[in-house]
Design brief:
247 residues, single chain, alpha+beta, binds magnesium ion
């Protein structure tokens, strides 16, 4: 069953999402060559705690950090470390906030300094694919309409969408039903209804969509070693269309 949120739930999720968006705005500013992925993690945690909220990922299934920071060929679930970010890297930051039991989830990919044209295009295409997916998150559409909008745009631009990881429902838990794939046909899957809340999160690879898991047991990497990007918003499905909660 896909949970339908009450008005109060939606108000709380909006508060949670606003905190997350504000934290992300601050964290984005620090991404430049010379900082470490651990710097991003520490600063994110400090800002979330200052808002009297909790980092949603820390401890989730044993994940050791507040932020997932995934660099270049890392797709998702990068573990913050003393790794120094270099000029030309692209850095995906994924953060989750738990405000009094209400969860929000968001990710962005940023260039560190000057990056090559292919990476620049990868970031733009991934961001745009999220926008196109969100547009479909309207009551009366099917879940597959989101998936298809993302996949068809990404593939038309010459990139590929990751199959191993998908978006998800979100609310009083970080992961709720349904799964929200970034691939698949339109007009299929569950009917979207007023009050559903979805974390839509395209992960887009430069080359093949295939991934492998790092020896750390967490981090997904592209199998071909080419760069990957990731954008995510938490979105409420309403009768008046999609409402982005994380902005
Ligand atoms: Mg997510």
């Amino acid at each position: 069953m896909i949970p339908i949120k009450s008005e109060r739930d939606l108000r709380m999720l909006k508060r949670s999402g606003r905190i997350l968006a504000a934290v992300m705005r601050e964290v984005e500013k620090m991404v430049k060559p010379g900082i470490t992925t651990l710097d991003i993690d520490r600063f994110s945690e400090e800002l979330i705690l200052k808002e009297n909220a909790l980092p949603a990922f820390k401890g989730y299934k044993g994940f050791p950090a507040t932020a997932c920071v995934s660099v270049n060929e890392e797709v998702v679930h990068g573990i913050p470390s003393p790794r120094v970010i270099l000029e030309g890297d692209i850095v995906s930051i994924d953060l989750g906030v738990n405000l009094e039991g209400y969860f929000s989830d968001m990710a962005v990919t940023l260039p560190a300094g000057r990056v090559d044209e292919r990476k620049k295009k990868l970031i733009e295409v991934t961001k745009r694919s999220l926008e196109l997916g969100i547009k479909q998150a309207a009551a009366g559409n099917y879940l597959g309409d989101i998936s298809c909008a993302i996949q068809s745009f990404v593939e038309a631009q010459g990139f590929s969408v990751v199959r191993n990881f998908v978006g998800h429902g979100i609310g009083v838990a970080l992961h709720e039903e349904p799964e929200v794939p970034n691939f698949g046909p339109a007009h299929l899957g569950p009917l979207l209804k007023n009050g559903m809340v979805l974390a839509i999160e395209p992960m887009v690879n430069t080359g093949s969509w295939e991934c492998r898991i790092d020896r750390n047991g967490w981090t997904a990497l592209t199998r071909d070693g080419l760069a990957s990007a990731h954008f995510e918003h938490t979105v409420a499905v309403t009768n008046k269309g999609p409402v982005i909660l994380t902005e």
